[in-house]
Amino acid sequence: MKICQSLGFDNSFRVDAVGQSGGIWLLWRNNAGVLIVVESSKQFVHARVEIGMEIIHLIAVYAAPTVSRRSNLWGQLKRVIESITEPVLVGGDFNTILRLDKRSGGNGRLSPDSLAFGEWINELALVDMGFR
After folding, report:
1. Between the N and C ends of the chain, which has fewer C-beta atoms within 10 Å?
2. In degrees, to the nearest 5, what angle opens at C-alpha 53 toward C-alphas 51 and 54?
3. Dihedral sign computed on CA atoms, order 52, 58, 14, 128
4. pLDDT tens digits, residue range 41-72?
5. Sign of the alpha-carbon torsion through 90, 92, 96, 100
6. How many CA atoms lie less than 13 Å away from 50 in the CB half-sphere?
C-alpha cells in the first residue's frame, strides 16, 4: 500500500504472483470514480467503475505464459464478458498473438492457442485497439 501511495494512487487491488509468474495490480485515484472489484482470479481482475452516472467494466488480464496453464482462461473471460450489459474494456498481457508479424522466429504458422484466441476475440466481437 505504501508503494501505491508513493506513486500517487489512493487505492489498489492486488492478485499476488505465484512463484515467478503472474500477479496483477490495479491502482487508481479517488477522482477516477468508484471502483468495485467484481471478480478476480490468478489470470484476471474484473472491476466495475462508476464515474458519475456512467458505468464501465474493466478486465485486466495477465495470462499464464504456458498454454496448459491458461487453457480455461478464454472460457472464463467469455462467461464474464457475456454477463456484462455496460461498456467493457479488456486489456493486458494475453501471452499469445493474433498475427505472425507480432512474433519473431517460429514455423510461420499461428499456434492452435493463437487461433483459439482469435476465435475468442471474433466470437465476442472485441476490437483489438493495438498499443504504443
Report:
1. C
2. 60
3. negative
4. 999 999 999 999 999 999 999 998 888 888 78
5. positive
6. 6
